[in-house]
Design goal:
The protein is α+β, with helices and mostly antiparallel strands. It contains 3 helices and 6 strands.
Length: 135
Amino acid sequence: MSDERRQHERYDDLELMLNVARLGIKGLMRANPTAEWLDFSLAGLLFVSGQVMQPGEVLVLDLCVCDIELTEIYGEVVSCTQEDNGQWYCSVKFCLEDKRMKQPDIRHCLLKIEDKLRSHRQYPTANISGVSDQI
């Protein structure tokens, strides 16, 4: 699975809203960590948080890029390492083998998010801050 994850292109240069929820005892929700995404691929994502996550821990993720919203998808923590700044960098793979994740609309939304990120990378919006000074 690790080799398969590395085959997907990664994106990190567009605003993606990420909400992370942790499952508690018997599926009850616990306090949700704040998270900021760093990297996205079709296989998973990397985010930074102030809370440590345990490898193997299942998370419920909500993703939103522009007008594309994907809610309550499952991801499994692959690794979580602390950096010098005290923040935790968590790598999460999407649980694509989960029954809900096999629904065509979930895969379709992941592909749309990837397409939006790829398009932004290929055609970044022009920096117009200097244009108004010249007019």
